[in-house]
Each structure stands twice: as C-alpha cells, then as structure tokens.
Write a structure and sequence with these properties.
The complex is a heterodimer of chains A (107) and B (159). Chain A is rod-shaped. Chain A has 6 helices and 2 strands, in the order H-H-H-H-E-E-H-H. Chain B has 4 helices and 8 strands, in the order E-E-H-H-E-E-E-E-E-E-H-H. In chain B, a hairpin with a 3-residue loop joins strand 1 and strand 2. In chain B, helix 1 crosses helix 2. The chains are: A mainly alpha (107), B alpha+beta (159).
Amino acid sequence: MSNLDAAFSALADPTRRAILARLALGEATVMELAEPFEMTQPAISRHLKVLEGAGLILRRVEGTKRPCRLAPTAIAEIDQWLGMLRQTLTANYNRLDDVLAAMKTEE
Amino acid sequence: MGKLTLKTEGDTHVVVTRHFAAPPEAVYRAHTEPALIQKWLLGPEGWTMPVCINEARPGGKIRYEWSDGKGGGFYLTGEFIEVVPFSRLVHVERMHMPDPTPDNHVETNFAPDGTGTLMTMRMTLPDAATRAAMLATGMEDGMEASYARLDALSVPTRP
C-alpha cells in the first residue's frame, strides 16, 4: 500500500485502535464513538482525521452526520504483511524438514 | 515432531520455537546458504525466491526477493549484526511492499536437542502496537477475517 507508515503510526495510538475495534462492529457516527470513550467529539474527530488520512476508515455524508466505517482494502493490505507470518512459518518449516532430510541423504 | 510454537514476551517480543530432525550445523546452513534457503523460505504455495543474497557475517547484507510467478512479488532487506557459525544469528529485517514495514530485530539460536535441533527465534518489534498488530492479525488467527482480527487489537477504552 502507498501509506503503510501512516497506517502503522495511526495504529500506534490505543484510542485509535479502540475506535477501529468499535468500527469493526459496524458504522458509527462521531457522537456514537465519543460516548464509550468518554472523550469530547472534537477529540474523537481529530483521531478520525488521522485514521482517515492513513486510509484506514472511510466516511460518508448523511445529512449533517458523517458516519465512519473501516476501509476494507486498507485493512486487507496491512494484513498482507501481518497475516503472512504464522502461515508462512508453518509452510516454510515443513519445507525445511524436507530440505534437511535431503541434506542428510546426500551426506 | 516439530510443531511450531509462538509466544509473546514483554511488550515487544515474539518468540518462535521449532524442533528439527537434523543437527544444528545443517539447520544453520539451511538458514545461511542461498541455494538451500531458496528451497524452503518461500511462503505460500507457488511462490519462488529468484533473488537470494545472504552474507552471513557481521555487517553482511540480506536480500530476498519473492515472486508469485504472475508478476506479483515483494522483497525483504536486512543486515547481520552477529554471526556465530552453527549456533546463532542476529539480524534486522524489513519487508518492502513496496513501502518498508517497521524494522524487526531477530535473534535465531540453534541448540542441540536430542539428535536434532531446537531453533528459537526471538523477534523484537519497535513498539507494542506493531507487535499487537502482528499478533492480532497474523500469527494467532491467520485464517480469520480481517475485521475479526482488528477486534483483537482492541484495548481498554480508558487507561
């Protein structure tokens, strides 16, 4: 993705991670997000701006509200790196077993 | 035999262990000789590593380039910090997708374990959030949907 650094720095803040976790449950307005976090709406708005800038959330206009939701493509792209690890290690080490067996045979 | 274990340590470490049915010398060689690395360090089925540079000496460079054979691919760069033949490797690495991921500091130890080897790989990520992201999305539940993984990133909403 073009903005992986921005995504990681956006994820470095615990409030922003919590906002993303809330948005994983579904779309929410600034007001709905401010409530459980006991933060002011401007404070939430600032966090949302960072998340939006990092491409992690999308906002649409609905009257005077701008509901937020997760940006699936951004999350999927971060996942491309993050998700590889466990599966990759398992597949790699199973292959390494075969390589080691072959090395033994050659000796 | 050989089941992978993964656990966290402190705020920023991830420790991976794996037993291999070959002595430390062989496992170490398979981690440092390009012709051997190219046979197994490949990720998902169908991927290859057309470029493999591994200069296993302090300050030596690492560059692995992977290809999916359909024009897709990415690469990893790194540098060795410490090299103890057949027993220990310390290096830093980052993936380029093409933007670089945060640096991952990796210590890999190869210890005799019966007639085989216990490999312990200790990764240190730059901060707790990066590790949390890595664990939540990739290592603990690699098959789950992205949204479910994001949920695991959740932290208490108040300090």
